Amino acid sequence: MVKNPRIKKGMPRPRPAVLGMAPYSPPSAGRAGKLRLDFNENTVGCSPRVLEFLKRTLTVEDLAVYPEYTAARPALAAFFCVRPEQLLLTNGTDEAIQIIVNTYVDDGDEVIVLRPSYAMYRFYAEVAGARIREIDYRPEGLAFPLEELLESITPATRAILIANPNNPTGTAVSLMGIEKILKRAAPAAVLIDEAYFEFSGVTALGLVENSPNLFVSRTFSKVYGMAALRLGCVFSHESNIAFLHKAQSPYSVNALAAMAAVEAVQDREYIQNYVAEVLAARELLAVGLEALGIPYFRSAGNFLLMKLGRRAIPIRNQLREKGVLVRDRSYEIPGCVRVTVGTREQIRRFLAALEEIW
């Protein structure tokens, strides 16, 4: 990717919003064969039932025709305990964010995001030409800034985009806090992105029925181990979903992703076992960091944010040389590196590598 492209003579000129954006370039190359503790993915893969199902049922015709969602939507709606009309399948959570912004935000409209948080909230708001208002997580413990957020909401606010729990801080807002935001923000669209719900146990999904401005998203890229298939869901009042559907490409979700998701949610034992393993490994990681004297932030997700100070990037690089990948976040939280929590065996390997260079 060209980081600073030039407009040459005869080339079309991009919109001002795009010209002013910084490109998003995740360090996704050269990860094969390494311990992947950098992108908060499932570190052991999807349920074996998913691959077995695809191998057993996939036909050449399935790949030759445009996808249908008549089986996937009701099956997933039943799993998430909503009506099919309250659910929209999306190409990852990213498309859910994009569709919500495209549906409700015009050029110059105000969008509130928190800082630091998932980069795609700001990304899609910037592409839309929105006026972005950022609310910082509280410096002490990176706690959710509920009062600051409530005070920032005005009649000009068109959308509020929140990760709960938040990436990369790991901190969360309570269900009571979400209800306060929904009430204060009406009729602005409020997205609660629950990519890490399985590790926190707190969900706003039960509020969808009686909260006309609430949107909740989930992903199959984390606990379900299907990041490569790019599948997400967004839930809201059925009238909102109908509007989102109008703003979505009709075949943006591929057929394999839809088929795999139906099989993935049926293997509840796999999901429960993986979550239990990650929660145990998260405690192991916390204890290990404390033993090394490394400060960190408590997390409700499948990751921890370590405070490494000036050595953050050198340690990230040295770990990579040892085959262990972690994510530098010092560009937005000085001196901090994020570690994905996998299995206890993987965390022991990480701690052993870290101890050698610490």
- What is the percent of helical residues? 25-40%
> Count the strands?
13
Q: Could you give the order of the helices and strands?
A: HEHHHEHEHEHEHEHEEHHHEEHEEEH
The whole-number mean of residue pLDDT values reads: 95
- According to CATH, the fold-level topology of the largest domain is Aspartate Aminotransferase, domain 2
Record the strand order, biggest sheet. 2-8-7-6-5-3-4
Percent strand: 15-25%
Overall tally of domains: 2
Main beta-sheet strand count, sense and barrel state: 7 strands, mixed
Number of helices: 14
CATH superfamily of the largest domain: Type I PLP-dependent aspartate aminotransferase-like (Major domain)
Rg (CA only): 21 Å
Helix-strand category: alpha/beta
Spatial separation of the terminal alpha carbons = 34 Å
Taking pLDDT < 50 over at least 5 consecutive residues as the criterion, the unreliable ranges are none
Top CATH class of the largest domain: Alpha Beta
Named CATH architecture of the largest domain: 3-Layer(aba) Sandwich
Described by the principal axes of the CA atoms, the overall outline is: globular
Overview of the molecule:
There is one protein chain. This protein has 358 residues and is α/β, with parallel strands linked by helices. The protein has 2 domains: 104 residues, Alpha-Beta Complex (Aspartate Aminotransferase, domain 1); 219 residues, Aspartate Aminotransferase, domain 2. Helices cover 40% and strands 16% of the residues. The protein has 14 helices and 13 strands. The strands form 3 sheets. The chain has a 7-stranded mixed sheet, sandwiched between helices. The protein has a 4-stranded antiparallel sheet with strand order 9-10-13-12, covered by helices on one side. α2 packs across α11, α5 packs parallel to α6 and α12 packs parallel to α14. The longest helix has 25 residues. The two termini are 34 Å apart.
